[in-house]
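Suppose you are handed a protein chain with no further information: no name, no annotation, nothing but its sequence. What can you learn? This example shows the usual starting point.
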Amino acid sequence: MKPTFILSSGKVFVVIFLGLVLLTSYFIGFNYFNSIDQAKTIEMSKLQAVSNALVSGIDPFELESIMLSNPNKDQIQIDNQPELYQKYHSILKKCFENNHLESPIYTVHKNNSTGGYEFGLTSNESPYFRHDYSEFPEEFHNLYHNGGQLEKHETKKGKWLSVISPIRTPDGRVIGALEMDVPFNEFLLSSRAALVSDAMYSVVFYLLIGLVVFRFIAKVIAVEKKQNEFEFEKSKMASYRQQEINSSINYARRIQKALWPDNKKLKNDFSDFFIINLPKDTVSGDFYWHHKVRGTEKYILIHADCTGHGVPGAMMSVLGNTIFNEIVVNYGITRPNEILNLTNKKLITLLQQEKEENLDDGMAVSIALLDRENLTLQFAGANQNSLIVRNRQTIHLKGDKYPVGGAHYDPNRTYNCHTVLLEPGDIMYSFSDGFRDQFGGPKNKKFLSAKFYEMLLENSRKSMGVQKEVILSVFNNWRGECEQIDDVSIVGIKV
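A reasonable first move is to predict its three-dimensional structure. Written in structure tokens, the prediction is:
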């Protein structure tokens, strides 16, 4: 019996495309509103801090004197300002200008005869002294005495974000309240501008992920067996599906392989090197990244080991590659520990690890900045070390013990940077932990770090090509019939 197509390829594409659009829209919308809320919180906190500082510089008795000695509306005007009023007007005006505010700063005072409120001091050049303060939300009555924040509220003149700080005498009597406002639409426009680049990055990222998923799904769910097929036909279909899955994973392997540094590019920068990349599965969670700083003889060399292996590890490697391109190429950051610091923050944000529990996706990373002109090497590591061999001696480059991201994430974590003076002929080795953790040998134990470093040292005087062959031979002989437990990657570069 022949399989029946339940959906045409066109319908499959439409369904997946719509799902992709919805997924992308959800994440962009979520990130947008979350970022707006964060920006609003920061803006209100800044206003509150400025307001509190300003209130601390106002003498409540002097303010009371201004109000009592000028009891009539518009008694204080541009060309008729008492010295005491001018003093505080100058203070408010200076604060208004220094903080680049859009709306004037002013004080509000309760009119005991009417029970309403009226304006007092203002940073505006034109006083509106004792004019009625008529448009305010119900919460203002409480904030007048206790202080606090007014999130988005609306008047005839627009929508606002406001903070209110009471001005009290030492015995607790409220003379008035200082109010600072930010036009909500202006705040929204400035916040949106800052979010445009993040939104575009999110669109590209989720679309790329979605396209890979689409290619995978489109091939493996294209057909379905009829309900009454014999077990032979079911087995045949299962075999067909597995072939298609393998085909898709192999395609993903080609994509991932393209992310590794091009040998031609490496040959242009380094005369002698080797790269070993042995995935546990078809695709790998290990990857290597290389970049020459424009106009210099400085090279960024990054070796990363993502949590897990196979498809999950590969997806993390694509994300890591994207992050390094953004930080180094787009931002121009080259100091290894600074790259790690920012990578840690970006990874936590992109994976939303601050909102999840037991989410242990992360990367062990070693980063080297090789300056061939000055023969120096700056190194930083996140739960990953490197090694320099010089004249049959080893120099261990030890990274910090924590990876970037992962179960024990800390967005404020910083990494250390170490500087080493190089000599011609030095060889730098970077590596994941796959070789050292491999079980094998006569007692079926791990290879371990000491034996691994000894192997590199013993073969360091051989050509890089021969070293590669020796290392591969040692690994295969050690593993024997044992299953490879993790991705293995080793890079050696002669200075």
